[in-house]
Amino acid sequence: MTAIMVSTMIVLLLLGFPMMIPLIVAAFIGFYSMFGGFDQMNFMIQQFMAGIRPASLIAVPMFILAADIMTRGHSADRLIEMVMKFIGHVKGGLAISTATACTLFGAVSGSTQATVVAVGSPLRPKMLKAGYKDNFVLALIINSSDIAFLIPPSIGMIIYGVVSNTSISELFIAGIGPGLLILGMFALYSYIYATIHKVPTEEKATWSERWASVRNAIWPLGFPVIIVGGIYGGIFSPTEAAAVCVLYAVILEFIVFRALKPVELYKIAKSTGLITAVVFILVAAGASFSWIISFAQIPQTILGSIGLAEASPTGVLIAISIAFFIGCMFVDPIVVILVLVPIFAPVVESAGLDPVLVGVLITLQVAIGSATPPFGCDIFTAIAIFKRPYMEVIRGTPPFVFMLVLAAAMLIMFPQIALFLRDLAFK
Amino acid sequence: ATWRYAFEEAITDVQGVFATKFKEHIEANSDHSIQLFPYGTLGESADIMEQTQAGLLQFVDQSPGFTGSLIPEAQIFFIPYLLPETHAALDHFFRNSKAINEDFKETYAEHGLELLKMFPEGEVVVTTQEPFDKPADLDGVKVRVMTNPLLVESYKAFGATPTPLPWGEVYGGLQTNIIQGQENPLFWVESAKMYEVTDVITFTGHNNFTTAVMANKNFYDGLPAEDQKLVQDAMDSAFNYIMEYQKGLGERSLEKILEQKPEMEVVRLTEEQRQPFRDAAQEVEKKFIEMTGDSGQALLEQFKKDLKAAQAQ
Amino acid sequence: MSDNQSMRHESTLPGPLGWIDAWLGRAEALMLGAGVLLMAFNTVANVVGRFVFQNSLFFTEEVNRILIVMITFAGIGYAARHGRHIRMSAIFDALPTSARKWMMVFIAFVTAMVMFALTFFSVRYIGSVADSGRILPSLQIPVWWIFLWVPLGLAVTGIQYLLTALKNLVSRDVYLSTQVLDGYDDDETEV
Ligand code: NA
Ligand code: NA
């Protein structure tokens, strides 16, 4: 059944079907063979609803809306202008800033999709204009946004902490090291890329120019202040921050700057709704596919046939990495964590592995798998928001996946990358 | 045959321990096998309930609190101080209560479910940032509750500000001070790491988190007599095990918490301090009857009778 | 495809069918725009209630859930209408026009059938939820109400794909949807 499901899915995908169809048809096949007919297909719809149920999902349309308002108005331009005055003269500076902005925004908002939208949509046009190739830009945005999985708050780590009975605080701290390591790798790659492709730099700005750009961006600088202050000040949750940003964006662009007319708000909202729907239908269809995989106990069957019991600690870590990487290529990360963590729990314990290290490694694999084709929410979000063909969105991915896999290998070889900060704080 | 059994917690939590015991008994005493589906692997509580009603799953563990949207009377378990506060009385109550073993059985049957067992999961405690021993101390304290009208009513009556927050945001919400408290059974405070982000655990005695295991009724009725007996025996065995397990669970959880966080403050409200909270429960009873009408009232009276019998033990 | 073209809610169907189709397009657009704005308003209102007035709005989460279902299922029909569903078209794009045309007829037809099948299953699912009598805890309304968009959105999407198949059969060019010619354009068009 698994083989037929996966091969049908890939064939339909390659033929050029709307991407919900491969997922839905694969789930159809699963349901049909599991229940011997169409009687229980209702539960596909139940899982569609379950897929789009999490309250945290609303951050996606809210950040799309806020980012679109900022980009069409003045806020985004003024912020980027300011950044350019400071780093425009550095080789690869804009790319490095984009990666950093994605990491920081993802860290605070907790949503990788929201990051793709909020940071990617204003910065992508600037990077294209500066001379970066689109496939590099898209891959950079998607992969840097996925660093957000590793940096607190991370819903994936919270779920892992609960399922595996591991300290969430320790996980949060342990994720920072690998997160920064990956950001460093991306920054280095950006520098090399800019050098090889001879991306031109701007002339170094004077301090008075820089100061003027800061003053010009003073209102839009309220965004980070509001988001960070509001979340850490206990006023709203990261999810709610998205809606508060919408409010601030509306106030700035429609009242303070008068850059947009009220009727445009409706247009922007409509386009937000469209992008949201296109991504969420895939989340919904993906949930029904995940459900049948889980119901049929396919992971248990596959993993049961591999003799993990005698593996060395490093062997277990590698097995975990591969299983989560493959799982997240096809299935929603949260479901992968919920299903696979209990399966691996006995071997993790018998191998004497630190559950915090395992948690960080799993979170890293989740990030890699989510950015890796064929399925990934951030890929879908990028396609929907930037209106670029699927192949172009993923074409620049390989170097990034290579760096992420390298980071995973380094983490397995040198666990201190993750555990150093944890030990400093808790031991 | 292969039977599927889904529950609302991780495999190492109370529902998971119960399910594992059940599975062991069935597999040791028959050729049947059980597949266990912990929290989230087949969806949320409402999803696995529907899947059981439709017969995709044979067994489901759902706490009556979550059943409330399907069977309003099940929300009776949210009324504070309706369950015994000592282990012995609790044990007697769950074994002998007519309300639980007869009245609820009929109600669940109307929804296509065979109620097999109800059992307590552990005393509900409140964790907060500041200590409290009277309702006035809770003034302005935002306590996260599930969006259930009775829970909301309870915490209002306790003097706090009940606040809804999706479960995934509770940990962060406590960290950043959106909320200043939450309630959960003690083992869950330990396993979901709520103690990492709060400073005080208060035993108010207002509830013991109750859960229920059910089978799809058509499936159960269609079983041959010896299989029905097998299921009942396995349930009894799991129940006996879990009541023993329960006895030390609270202390074990507390020990683990204090080991991880020695500065955690533990407050047990005295009988006298509990009285104002007990009085507040009247409001919640009223709300319950308002929501469920005569059938709710009858159930409530039976509950109180059973409670008296249990406390007489 | 210019901005104006894609913003218009004109149908390519004849007579009263076209009229219905055009109004459906407008209704979908309204659901999307209003749904997103309501979600922002609803969420901010809860923040203000909780932080300023010490009183959370208990229905906020449920209302957002309703809006998400509405946006998703009003949106898939609208996306189908404007050829915006995500697909991997690398192989498809490499085919000659005539092959692409037949391929598109096949894709659109199969997609329509899948959508109609899902419509049927969703009606059955809603029926079972309605029978169970389940209600939303804080709004105290039947749960099945919030799913009503689902069959509607799926059916509308199915019809759009069916029409796309027909459109490709009767015209010379290759159409991604009833209104959109194949080929990505670089303009950031507004839909
Ligand atoms: Na994060
Ligand atoms: Na993926």
TrEMBL record, chain A:
Classification via InterPro entries: DctM (IPR010656), TRAP_DctM (IPR004681)
Record Pfam families: DctM (PF06808)
Main subcellular localisation: membrane
UniProt topology in membrane: Multi-pass membrane protein
Amino-acid biosynthesis listed as a keyword: no
Subcellular location: Cell inner membrane
Transmembrane segments: 50-70, 136-160, 172-196, 217-235, 241-260, 272-296, 316-344, 356-386, 398-421
Domain TRAP C4-dicarboxylate transport system permease DctM subunit: 8-417
Keyword tags: Cell inner membrane, Cell membrane, Membrane, Transmembrane, Transmembrane helix, Transport
Assembly and interaction partners: The complex comprises the extracytoplasmic solute receptor protein and the two transmembrane proteins.
Family affiliation: Belongs to the TRAP transporter large permease family.
Role this protein plays: Part of the tripartite ATP-independent periplasmic (TRAP) transport system.
Protein name per Swiss-Prot or TrEMBL: TRAP transporter large permease protein
Organism: Marinobacterium alkalitolerans
From TrEMBL, chain C:
Record's subcellular location: Cell inner membrane
Segments passing through the bilayer: 29-53, 65-81, 102-123, 143-163
Xref: InterPro entries: DctQ, TRAP_DctQ
Keywords per UniProt: Cell inner membrane, Cell membrane, Membrane, Transmembrane, Transmembrane helix, Transport
Keyword Cell membrane attached: yes
Domain of life: Bacteria
Residues in Tripartite ATP-independent periplasmic transporters DctQ component domain copies: 41-167
Membrane topology classification: Multi-pass membrane protein
Quaternary context: The complex comprises the extracytoplasmic solute receptor protein and the two transmembrane proteins.
Protein family: Belongs to the TRAP transporter small permease family.
Protein function: Part of the tripartite ATP-independent periplasmic (TRAP) transport system.
Designated name of the protein: TRAP transporter small permease protein
